[in-house]
Amino acid sequence: MSTVDPRLSINQATIKYADLATALRVTADAGVQSIGLWREPVNEVGLDTATKMLADSGLRFSSHCRGGFFTLPAGLERDAALGDNRRAIDETAALADAGADGSTAVLVLVAGGLPEGSRDLIGARERVRDALGELVPYAQGAGVTLAIEPLHPMFGSDRCVVSTLGQALDLASDFDAATVGAAVDTFHIWWDPQVYEQIARAGREGRIATYQVCDWATPLPADVLLSRHYMGDGVIDFASLTRAVIETGYDRDIEVEIFNQQIWDTDPADVVARTAAAFAETVAPHLP
Amino acid sequence: MSTVDPRLSINQATIKYADLATALRVTADAGVQSIGLWREPVNEVGLDTATKMLADSGLRFSSHCRGGFFTLPAGLERDAALGDNRRAIDETAALADAGADGSTAVLVLVAGGLPEGSRDLIGARERVRDALGELVPYAQGAGVTLAIEPLHPMFGSDRCVVSTLGQALDLASDFDAATVGAAVDTFHIWWDPQVYEQIARAGREGRIATYQVCDWATPLPADVLLSRHYMGDGVIDFASLTRAVIETGYDRDIEVEIFNQQIWDTDPADVVARTAAAFAETVAPHLP
């Protein structure tokens, strides 16, 4: 257990097929202190039960995944999405309350892709800004930070029209930094020629809501969504990226979030152990 | 024939399985006035024969593909790559001489990916700059423009460490604009939140060496290299991108370059006809 870094947090997507009870158990049993949750497994047991289970686990809560899907034009579907985001904000606040000391009320937002048949990328991006504007007062009231997550540009049309950290920070800049920040996820931003200057800027502006790590490797699998790897199994330089994040003063948990069919097909306790080892080797040496 | 825009150029990769003779014939027969060539089919017949064939076709020559592969550390392999680039420069100059009036001596450069086992993205990018420095005097002597092509970030580790137009322009900025420019390819840059400002900058700096078009659609195929589509079959807004390029004063040929297995498996004459129709519908309306 002594090799498990205290700042490591297991994002539940890394052990996707584990239900909430299993995810909490294998994470705590491995000596990991923190977990990031996803809405589906939380809602499977209901929020009240989930908060009790989280409290009983003794784990910190580092983030909730995920809200967003903001690119729809005005209408019922968009209204429903905004309502669902308010519920996600409530869940985030409740889970952060239930988690151990040092928990953070961070809701990760994935903006959404182009609406079916649309080529209006600029319009879609403006609707993201509008949706943030509608949610911010509610998030502020709940004490929740919305973390805009830029996704790799290969997801730019179908999943997320926010493609760079700089763009996420531009979107966030209309709002208070305590309520709107950005998710800094190595997988999505490692390639960006501006990545170091934008991480420094995010720090200066107080906008690093969460730092998430996993690796990039090629060839990409047939489903590119599942192309995330254990740190060290790809090409990302975790030394320089982690140091850049730490230099901004970021002092909270660091999540490992991996979508990978082979990893999902592995026993979750083994996955958590392997994740902790990879973290100890690639990220922990660059922490203060 | 009246529907074929005079500025359309067929990049030979769009009809990959056609040899040089076939590519020239189907392009000219369709009433297309210009072609972009690839090194392999040119070298299959030899440069002298290729220049004669091109001259006989009456077509303009719009670009040569491709040089680059600049990210190797110092050594024999890098020296060989630089030597090969000098041959590509010679080919480009000869082909531009042989093409009809209005031909342009443009060599498209794909920088190359991270060397095997390396995570040093910054170092790889610096080696691209160094390699350009070594080739520029030779290109200048030959009257050839090197077009740095930013590739979509999904190719950032294995094919091209130059991922944005802004980064390509930063690399180019050390050199004379007549000798080093950038390739503006819609497929690679459509997602970039800075795309319009960087196209305008490229124009101001005299660096748009070639404008290439094709479309982006999802889901991506298993081999993401082959995910290019006819214009109109995806999500790219050719109206705004083409107008942005034209507003800079760009007045040369516009190439269609599509890597797509299904298109490659189609009769090349049909592909050229379909390409001309897609160009007439999506790009030509935005030309002066």
UniProtKB/TrEMBL annotation, chains A, B:
Gene Ontology MF term list: isomerase activity
Pfam families attached to this UniProt entry: AP_endonuc_2 (PF01261)
Residue stretches making up the Xylose isomerase-like TIM barrel domain: 25-274
UniProt-listed InterPro entries: IolE/XylAMocC-like, Xyl_isomerase-like_sf, Xyl_isomerase-like_TIM-brl
Coiled coil: none
Keywords: Carbohydrate metabolism, Isomerase
Protein name (database record): Sugar phosphate isomerase/epimerase family protein
